[in-house]
Amino acid sequence: MLAKIALLVCCAVTLLSQTSQHNYTHTDLKGFHFELLLTHLTELEARIQTTLQEIAFNQTRQLEDLKLHSNVPCGNVETIGKSNTILPNVNRMNYRRETIVGLDTDHKLDGEWTVFQWRFNGSLAFNRTWAEYRAGFGDTRAEHWLGLDNLWQLLAQGTAHELLVVMENIQGTTVYAHYSMFGIGTLAERYAIKVIGKYSGTAGDSLTFHIGAKFTTHDQDNDSHASNCATLYNGGWWFKDCYSCFLNGEYVTGSQSTERGLIWFSFTGPFSSLKSSKMMIRPQRT
């Protein structure tokens, strides 16, 4: 932006220099050339003013974002941080960071994680199109899906990543599943789960079943079932035929029995839906 202002000022100086290099008479300056010079200077002044207004607007927006993030009610374990990557369909264009403290007894999971899926109140529908699941949807301050393109970019940064899934059932019991490695394929590979590392945790291992599974939505059938699993269960996921875990289903309140809810089979069984789920990644710790 400063470079833009400098360029405009340079143009003004050049214009004045060119005018002075011509031996215009007093009469000339009162006539056509003088009017032309004034017109150019007025245009340059307007462009500089517009640029300054853009700078002021951007600074104000950054301050508003900073105030917003400082007022998020996150208790004493959550933080929100900005990313340089733009999320096309995610409001506020930020990745959500969460700091975990004391989830496991030996504190190996302590530290900052990047959230790519968050469900907790059913305010956001997850039965979305392929394009939406690629781009991301929701608000990172609330329920959201980061987007398969963004997730792949984060996981493909040259460092192995680990996965943490934190879940709570309707009785208020919180459990977690940690995997020492996690990786997905490219768009051409339909974002298939390529790597799932060693499991540890309290939820049980319901994800390893899905290794090799491609991502499926109701309008993009990549699973191995005779039908479309995303259509059967109303949400996009790494389905095989169909699932052992499924966290993008319908949000169900109370103790209603359903196989279309938020399911982690080894914890919930096949028909009890979770109250909340949060999926997070970070570069692998040595």
Automatic annotation (TrEMBL):
Membrane-crossing residue ranges in chain numbering: none
Superkingdom of origin: Eukaryota
SUPFAM superfamilies to which the protein is assigned, alphabetical: Fibrinogen C-terminal domain-like (SSF56496)
GO cellular component, one term: extracellular space
Signal peptide: none
SMART domains to which the protein is assigned, alphabetical: FBG
Gene3D superfamilies: Gamma Fibrinogen, chain A, domain 1 (3.90.215.10)
Protein name: Fibrinogen C-terminal domain-containing protein
Species this protein is from: Anopheles stephensi (Indo-Pakistan malaria mosquito)
